[in-house]
């Protein structure tokens, strides 16, 4: 089991019954993909490992769907997705399988959160796992928005260096993408995608700057992709059908 998931399981299982349904292999940047053209293979996790649940051959969104409709005896109170290695900020939310699992649970009517640790170097998930358990315990702060999925990022700092918690909007931070060309033994060119999050959009009201400043960031998410300002403008225009 991935170390981030194991840490999250350990923290939550101290006060809750935890049922694990997770991809059996790395599923970074798969977004909200679901598997339609291939079967989903399911493997029961060994009780000796201390986990109750299954490993699935599909994506994070597949895992949520399969768990809710087939594998769990009854729906859970909450789905916790993570802990992801590396922050999920800005436009990365569109690509993140971790975030998509939380959004899929919300679409199914289940409370949900995605939680990520803001580093890829020697990650220590212990405090992020503790914070996840703390957030579950205080979920009622959402009040009438308790069904809203949350995107949570925890800075990779010592606990006494973390400045606090900020509820923030999704920033416009994006990856500066580049592709590194290589050549295989047969002379064929292939590419590795590389990049890092860049750009500060706004101040401490946005996820990327707030995390970089040392705050745990929490962003309530929505599923509606409609650009309402553009919609209002377009409704004042007219577009005719092409002539026969």
TrEMBL record:
SUPFAM superfamilies: SurE-like. GO terms for cellular component: cytoplasm. It catalyses: a ribonucleoside 5'-phosphate + H2O = a ribonucleoside + phosphate. InterPro entries: SurE, SurE-like_Pase/nucleotidase, SurE-like_sf. It is found in: Cytoplasm. Its EC number is 3.1.3.5. Its main location: cytoplasm. Binds 1 divalent metal cation per subunit. It holds the Pfam family SurE. Its cofactor is a divalent metal cation. PANTHER family: 5'-NUCLEOTIDASE SURE (PTHR30457), 5'_3'-NUCLEOTIDASE SURE (PTHR30457:SF12). Nucleotidase that shows phosphatase activity on nucleoside 5'-monophosphates. HAMAP family: SurE (MF_00060). This is 5'-nucleotidase SurE. The gene is surE.
